[in-house]
Design goal:
Helix-turn-helix family protein; 5 helices
Amino acid sequence: MLKNARKSKRMSQKYLAKRLRITQSYLSKLENKKKYNKNVTIYLVERIAEELDLDSTDVFFYFCRRS
């Protein structure tokens, strides 16, 4: 979901990570759900939703579901 939304907005991982104030590596892990992280902050969920024009509830549940 996150990767598709980012690509549809024609953003690179590097650009989005900088906007979110996280590392590109961490963004990659979040996008690919390689590392389940239940410690994603509400602030980060809201920032991701804002940057990608997504509903924050959808982003929240994206992180709640295990891959």
